[in-house]
């Protein structure tokens, strides 16, 4: 009898194939459709939703995304760990669209008294844990259901239909549990904090979660419905604009993106360029002529602008070959006996002087209409914010406001007299006696105050005038609560109305002497002061602000550690859900990361719009997903997440690029080059006096070897609970880097229409010890804040040097050492973090007949 044939070899198991069916995340029926970035506030939409909110800061959809995992059964956390606030009332979770025979049920759908008792015991245990301030925040433990809960759980419906990676989905809703409704009515529980967070909306109750948000985070809470944005028809707006231009006999009218303070992010009432053009990017200028309209923006926004502009507009891609480098060169080139209008408040002194100097020989000039022409046609323009300002404690700032004002006055005394006329003997009128501060970040820094007027920034609209014997802050009196008025009096600062600045300057309220202003001050102030009353000089406040003291640095370390814990939990969750066969959109991923962050101590909102991008969207450096159009995260292309949060103790900015499948050789080679540039900056040692611009080549050198490059800057300064972009230091600046400067390190590469990648970490400049001391030079290097591992799946081992391999291993091990103690209760995240610290570089090719576990 012939022997039976041998059994067939086992199949090769590639990632995410033949494992589980493609599934979608489901949502709780108690949640409405909400978006993190909707337009315009409306108090009538304020609703307290029954979502789990340990810090009671933001309503959420992502928290109600249903899943069930063993990694969410948390062990007791050591008492030595720092805690963030927690509360009761987490939405009930369930897995949808499960396979027959492997159903795992959610909890909270009335499975009997015994189950309710278990849930109550679990919540009591969490309340006991959350009473300590020495722990990180915990999610409530999953209360497991026995088989008796099956009948109750059948009410959970399949949440969505699976679409392709460029389409959206429709989700079903399930009813909220009685427990969630009770939490809704009670406002949730809170643990005791060292001091209450400042209320940002007086009309709301103290327990309402908007009381802890800043800037746009407040707007997103009020407007939890995302409207589907349509391309506006600007025909009528442009016709009305040209009618007003004709009254002033203008050939061109310029609409900058900045506000009167030169802010990068502006309030809704200052989005004039967006209103007239429809372009929503944060950088760009609009110019309207008698017959045409032009939008100028850099490479970060070319594709976005092309999608958002209607047929009335022509996109000018500044920086492209054969195109003007900026709008100033473009308009000067076309100026011949022309009158160019611009609101003098919206253009800086520096730019106005530059344009006027270039127009001088062309019989052309700038014209400053008394009213902004966009404001005259903007019928439903939003009103300015009247949110209260609040005090930033010295435990976060390290220096009190009295000290900062005293240092500013010392600097004013040291400034030489104005010598515009060298042969003239200086008089009292030539001596600098005051400084006018117009930058919102500089004002907030100097006074140790924060506010909520600007999206993503804890800033408030104001001007600050400091003379040798007087200090005045100009802001709306409605923004000043009683405790801030008392505080201002205690530090010797007067307060006047926001618009009172103009009569003060006109009447020369400081007396004799010159006022110092920064080059970025609006030209309207220069015109008001006249050239005999001001001197232009680099801002000393900006210089002070850029040099972080040890208290600020230590606070930033803690903020980045907490943020790193959230990022690790997010990446572990995302990889786990994709491995289980779920389809997750870019929008859902961004929401989930925000949910992890919002549970952190001192969380005050996002630092900028989440950049959560997969596939071709990742090739857009400033892409931000919308719920209505977000793509599904691809398993065949890199996924890029660039996001950050505002905390009382720091402003965070982190980018990581991941791949959840098997990357191509082209992806691996590009990613390795980006990583080599990142390593080169991180490990650089340089002599004192070296500027960021001189180091920039280190980040690009590896990419240049393969003929690759990126168009954006390599890195920028950032604030201490201020703006995410801060100067004067950057890798594009000639300002020397000095100890105390903080800066990001973010090289990248983008293959248009296919994929993109970027790796970003935050650094602080430190003095370093070297074996040699050439000529007694002081040598500097970087210390890293960021505590998020760098994925090695796309790294090509053969391209790395021995030192680079050692750096990667050391980096990921340090992340493990710092973050692991805070993940004792999160088995999934701890396992993921340990794996990233231990794993090798790249992916080995599978041998035939071998089953591969893509851990």
Automatic annotation (TrEMBL):
InterPro entries, A to Z: Creatin/AminoP/Spt16_N, Creatinase/aminopeptidase-like, Creatinase_N, Pept_M24, Pept_M24B, Peptidase_M24_C, X-Pro_aminopeptidase_P
Task: For this UniProt record, give its keywords in alphabetical order, as a comma-separated list.
Answer: Aminopeptidase, Hydrolase, Manganese, Metal-binding, Protease
What is the protein's given name?
Aminopeptidase-P
Q: Please give the superkingdom of this protein's source.
A: Eukaryota
Identify the species of origin. Crepidotus variabilis
Q: Which family does it belong to?
A: Belongs to the peptidase M24B family.
Q: Which cofactor does it need?
A: Mn(2+)
What is a GO molecular function of this protein? metal ion binding
Bias (Polar residues) ranges: 52-62, 174-192
**Region entry Disordered, spans:** 1-62, 81-210
**Record bears the keyword Zinc:** no
Secretion signal span: none
Tagged with keyword Metal-binding: yes
Which stretches does UniProt call biased (Basic and acidic residues)?
112-121, 155-173
Ranges annotated as biased composition (Pro residues): 1-13
- Which is one Gene Ontology cellular component term of this protein? cytoplasm
Q: Where is each Peptidase M24 C-terminal domain found?
A: 779-837
Q: Which Pfam families match?
A: Creatinase_N, Creatinase_N_2, Peptidase_M24, Peptidase_M24_C
Q: Where is the Peptidase M24 domain?
A: 554-766
Domain Creatinase N-terminal residues, every copy: 237-362
């Amino acid at each position: 009898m012939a022997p039976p044939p041998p059994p067939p070899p086992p199949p090769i198991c590639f990632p995410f194939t033949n494992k589980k069916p493609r599934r979608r995340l489901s949502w709780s029926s108690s949640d409405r459709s909400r978006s993190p970035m909707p337009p315009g506030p409306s108090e009538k939409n304020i609703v307290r939703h029954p979502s789990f909110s340990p810090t009671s800061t933001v309503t959420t959809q992502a928290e109600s995304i249903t899943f069930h995992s063993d990694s969410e059964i948390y062990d007791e956390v050591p008492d030595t760990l720092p805690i963030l606030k927690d509360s009761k009332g987490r939405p009930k979770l369930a897995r949808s669209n499960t396979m027959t025979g492997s159903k795992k049920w959610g909890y909270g759908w009335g499975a009997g008294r015994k189950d309710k008792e278990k849930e109550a015991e679990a919540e009591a245990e969490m309340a006991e844990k959350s009473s300590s301030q020495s722990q990180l925040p915990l999610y409530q433990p999953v209360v497991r259901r026995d088989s008796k809960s099956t009948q109750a759980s059948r009410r959970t419906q399949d949440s969505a239909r699976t679409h392709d990676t460029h389409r959206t989905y429709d989700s079903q809703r399930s009813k909220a549990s009685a427990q969630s409704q009770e939490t809704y009515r009670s406002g949730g529980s809170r643990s005791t904090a060292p001091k209450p967070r400042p209320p940002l909306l007086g009309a709301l109750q103290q327990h309402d979660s908007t009381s802890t948000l800043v800037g746009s985070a407040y707007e997103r809470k009020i407007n939890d419905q995302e409207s589907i944005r349509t391309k506006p028809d600007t025909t009528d707006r442009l016709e009305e604009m040209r009618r007003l231009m004709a009254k002033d006999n203008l050939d061109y009218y310029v609409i900058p993106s900045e506000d009167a303070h030169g802010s990068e992010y502006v309030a809704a009432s200052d989005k004039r360029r967006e209103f007239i053009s429809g372009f929503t990017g944060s950088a760009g200028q609009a110019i309207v002529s008698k017959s045409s309209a032009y939008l100028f923006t850099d490479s970060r926004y070319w594709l976005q602008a092309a999608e958002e502009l209607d047929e009335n507009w022509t996109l000018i891609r500044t920086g492209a070959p054969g195109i003007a480098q900026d709008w100033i060169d473009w308009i000067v080139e076309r100026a011949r006996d022309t009158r160019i209008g611009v609101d003098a408040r919206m253009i800086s002194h520096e730019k106005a002087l530059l344009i006027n100097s270039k127009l001088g020989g062309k019989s052309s000039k700038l014209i400053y209409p008394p009213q902004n022409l966009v404001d005259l046609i903007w019928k439903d323009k939003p009103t300015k914010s009247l949110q209260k300002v609040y005090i930033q404690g010295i435990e976060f700032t390290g220096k009190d406001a009295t000290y900062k004002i005293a240092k500013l006055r010392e600097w004013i005394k040291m400034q030489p007299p104005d010598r515009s006329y060298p042969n003239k003997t200086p008089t009292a009128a030539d001596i600098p006696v005051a400084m006018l501060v117009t930058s919102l970040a500089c004002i907030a820094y100097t006074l140790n105050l924060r506010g909520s007027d600007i999206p993503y920034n804890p800033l408030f609209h104001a001007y600050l005038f400091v003379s040798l014997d007087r200090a005045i802050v100009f802001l709306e009196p409605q923004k000043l609560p009683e405790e801030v008025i008392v505080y201002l009096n205690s530090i010797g600062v007067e307060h006047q109305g926001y618009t009172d600045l103009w009569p003060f300057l006109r009447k020369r309220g400081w007396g004799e002497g010159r006022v110092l202003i920064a080059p970025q001050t609006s030209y309207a102030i220069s015109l008001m002061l006249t050239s005999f009353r001001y001197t232009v000089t680099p801002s000393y406040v900006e210089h002070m602000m850029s040099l972080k003291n040890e208290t600020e640095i230590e606070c930033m370390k803690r903020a980045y550690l907490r943020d790193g814990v959230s990022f690790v939990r997010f990446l572990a969750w995302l990889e786990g859900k994709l491995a289980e066969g779920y389809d997750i959109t870019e929008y859902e991923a961004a929401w989930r990361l925000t949910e992890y962050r919002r549970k952190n101590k001192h969380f005050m909102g996002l630092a900028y719009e989440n950049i959560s991008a997969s596939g071709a969207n990742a090739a857009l450096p400033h892409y931000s997903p919308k719920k209505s159009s977000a793509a599904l995260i691809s398993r065949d292309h890199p996924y890029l997440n660039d996001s950050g949060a505002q905390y009382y103790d720091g402003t965070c900015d982190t980018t990581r690029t991941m791949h959840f499948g098997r990357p191509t050789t082209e992806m691996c080679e590009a990613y390795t080059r980006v990583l080599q540039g990142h390593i080169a900056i991180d490990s650089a040692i340089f002599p004192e006096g070296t500027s960021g611009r001189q180091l920039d080549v280190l980040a690009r050198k590896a990419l240049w070897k393969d003929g690759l490059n990126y168009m954006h800057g390599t890195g920028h300064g950032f604030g201490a609970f201020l703006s995410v972009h801060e100067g004067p230091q950057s890798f594009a600046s000639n300002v020397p880097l000095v100890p105390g400067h903080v800066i990001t390190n973010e090289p990248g590469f983008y293959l248009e229409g296919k994929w993109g990648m970027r790796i970003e970490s935050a650094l602080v400049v430190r003095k370093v010890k070297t074996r040699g001391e050439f000529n007694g030079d002081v040598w500097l290097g970087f210390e890293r804040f960021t505590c998020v591992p760098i994925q090695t799946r796309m790294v090509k081992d053969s391209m790395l040097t021995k030192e680079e391999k050692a750096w990667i291993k050391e980096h990921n091990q340090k992340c493990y050492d710092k973050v692991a103690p805070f993940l004792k209760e999160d088995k999934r995240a701890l396992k993921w973090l340990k794996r990233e610290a231990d794993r090798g570089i790249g992916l080995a090719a599978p041998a035939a007949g071998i089953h591969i576990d893509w851990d």
